[in-house]
Specification:
Length: 429
C-alpha cells in the first residue's frame, strides 16, 4: 500500500481533550477521528487494527465451538420490559419511532438472544448452544473518556451459552477462560483473571480479564499465585497474606477490564420462560452464561501498554501493516529511479510473501518519514536510500530496538518472512 494513496494523515497536534495515550496517539497517527465524546470514526489504519483484533476474537470463539450470528442493534421496548430492564439499565439509549413506538439501541443482548435460541433449541438434544456476535454496542456512559477505553458507541463481542445442567455450564465457562486468555495474549496483552461482582445477575462472582496499566479505571488486588480480586468486591487489602496460597503477599495495581464473563444462572430464562424437557422428562430452566470482550477497548489498551514518547509499538499480530518501507528521495535522477525500482520490487515481493507493507513513497524529508514511522509504530521499518544502495542493502530497524542494521538486497525478503513467523517480542509484562 502506498502511503500517498492512504486516506487520512498524521497530525502534529494532539486533540485538546485527549486525556490518555491511546486517544492522543491514535488521533495523531490518523487511526481514529472523533465525532463527539466517546464516538469515533475508524480511519483506514485504525480499521485494519480493529479488524485484526476482531479476527483473533472470532478465531478463538470459533475454536470454542460457538456459532457467529449478527443480531439487530435496534431493539423493541417490549423485549426489555419482559426482564424488567427497560428502566433498570441506566445507560440504555432509548428512542421513539413512528406512532410513539419505543426502541433501545442494544447495550447488551440477553433480551434478544434468549428468545432467539428458544425458537431453535426445543429439545434436550439441541443443547448445549453457544452463539456470539461482534457488533457495536451503545451505552449512554455518563462520562465517555480515555479514547477507545470508554465510548458511547463501541465494539463488543458478546457470546451467550445455554445449558441444561450446571456441570455442563461450568465446563464451558472454564473453557471460555482459556479462549479469552488466548485472545489477549495474541493481541500482545497479558491479562489477569480477576474475581468480580456478578452484577444483578447472580450472587456468584463474575470473572474479569484485567490488563495492568496506569490509565486503568479499575483497581485489582492480586498475588503472584494467581489469586486476584477487583477492589469492588475484595476481601483482602494490600500487604495481607494471600488467602489463596497462604504465603504470598497481596499487591495492588490499576488495570483496564478488557473482558468479563458471567454465570447468568436462570436470570433470563426464567423471565423469558425458556424451559426444556430434560432427558429424564422433567422440565428445567435453561442455565445461561454471557461472555464479553470489547475489541475497540482492546485496541486502546494495546496502545496504553505499548507506546513510548515517539509513538505506538504495535505487536505484529494486530499492526495495521507489518512493515513501514521508507524510500528516501535523491537529487540524482538515476539514483532516484534506482531507489524507486528497488522499493517497488521490495514492496511487491514482500506482499507476495504475506508481509504487509506500507510504502512511504512521499517526496518528504527523511526526518518527517522517520517521525511518522515511529508515531504509527509498525513493528519493522525498512529504508531504501542512496546510502543503503551504495552497500547493496536495505536498512532494517525494529520499532522496539534502538539500532538499525543493513541487510543485503538478496536476503531481505527471506529475513522479513522469518521475522514475521518468529514469536512475538511485544507482550506486556
Ligand atoms: P465497565 O465496568 O468498564 O463499564 P462493563 O462491566 O459494564 O464495563 P461489560 O458489560 O462486562 O462491561 O462489557 C463487556 C466488555 O465490553 C468489557 O469487558 C469491555 O471490554 C467492553 N466495554 C464495556 N463498556 C465499554 C465502553 N463504554 N467502551 C468500550 N468498551 C466497553
Ligand atoms: Mg464488566
Amino acid at each position: 500500500m502506498k502511503y500517498s494513496k492512504l486516506f487520512g494523515k498524521t497530525v502534529k497536534d494532539a486533540p485538546h481533550d485527549a486525556d490518555s495515550p491511546n486517544a492522543r496517539l491514535l488521533t495523531q497517527a490518523g487511526f481514529i477521528n472523533q465525532l463527539m465524546a466517546g464516538v469515533y470514526t475508524y480511519m483506514p489504519m485504525g480499521l485494519r487494527v480493529l479488524n485484526k483484533v476482531k479476527d483473533i476474537v472470532r478465531d478463538e470463539m470459533d475454536a470454542l465451538g460457538a456459532s457467529e450470528v449478527f443480531m439487530p442493534a435496534l431493539t423493541p421496548k417490549e423485549a426489555w420490559e419482559k426482564t424488567n430492564r427497560w428502566d433498570k439499565i441506566d445507560v440504555l439509549f432509548k428512542l421513539e419511532g413512528h406512532g410513539g413506538k419505543e426502541y433501545a439501541l442494544g447495550s447488551t443482548h440477553e433480551e434478544i438472544v434468549t428468545p432467539l435460541v428458544k425458537q431453535y433449541a426445543t429439545s434436550y438434544k439441541d443443547f448445549p448452544v453457544s452463539v456470539y456476535q461482534i457488533q457495536d454496542k451503545f451505552r449512554n456512559e455518563p462520562r465517555a473518556k480515555s479514547g477507545l477505553l470508554r465510548g458511547r458507541e463501541f465494539s463488543m463481542k458478546d457470546l451467550y451459552s445455554f445449558h441444561l445442567d450446571e456441570q455442563d455450564f461450568l465446563d464451558f465457562y472454564e473453557k471460555s477462560k482459556g479462549a479469552y486468555l488466548n485472545v489477549f495474549k495474541r493481541c500482545g496483552l497479558n491479562a489477569k483473571i480477576v474475581e468480580a461482582s456478578g452484577g444483578d445477575f447472580t450472587e456468584k462472582n463474575s470473572h474479569e480479564f484485567q490488563v495492568p496499566t496506569e490509565n486503568g479505571e479499575d483497581m485489582v488486588f492480586y498475588c503472584d499465585c494467581g489469586f486476584a480480586q477487583n477492589k469492588e468486591i475484595a476481601s483482602v487489602k494490600e500487604g495481607d497474606t494471600c488467602p489463596g496460597c497462604s504465603k504470598g503477599i497481596i499487591k495492588s495495581e490499576k488495570a483496564i477490564e478488557v473482558g468479563n464473563i458471567f454465570p447468568l444462572e436462570d436470570r433470563f430464562s426464567k423471565d423469558l420462560n425458556f424451559k426444556v424437557q430434560g432427558a429424564d422428562g422433567e422440565m428445567v430452566n435453561v442455565i445461561m452464561g454471557c461472555y464479553g470482550i470489547g475489541p475497540s477497548r482492546v485496541m486502546g489498551s494495546i496502545v496504553e501498554v505499548h507506546h513510548d514518547d515517539k509513538g505506538m509499538l504495535w505487536p505484529k499480530s494486530v499492526a495495521p501493516f507489518h512493515v513501514y518501507l521508507a524510500s528516501l528521495s535523491s537529487k540524482d535522477e538515476d539514483l532516484q529511479s534506482r531507489i524507486d525500482e528497488v522499493a517497488t520490487s521490495l514492496h511487491d515481493d514482500l506482499e507476495a510473501a504475506g508481509v504487509e507493507v506500507l510504502w512511504d513513497e512521499r517526496d518528504t524529508r527523511p526526518g518527517e518519514k522517520f517521525a511518522d514511522a515511529d508515531l504509527i509504530g509498525l513493528p519493522l521499518r525498512l529504508v531504501v536510500s542512496e546510502k543503503t544502495l551504495a552497500e547493496n542493502s536495505i536498512e532494517w530497524k525494529e520499532r522496539h530496538e534502538d539500532d538499525a542494521r543493513l541487510v543485503s538486497l538478496d536476503d531481505i525478503v527471506e529475513q522479513a518472512e522469518q521475522w514475521l513467523e518468529a514469536p512475538e517480542r511485544l507482550t506486556s509484562h
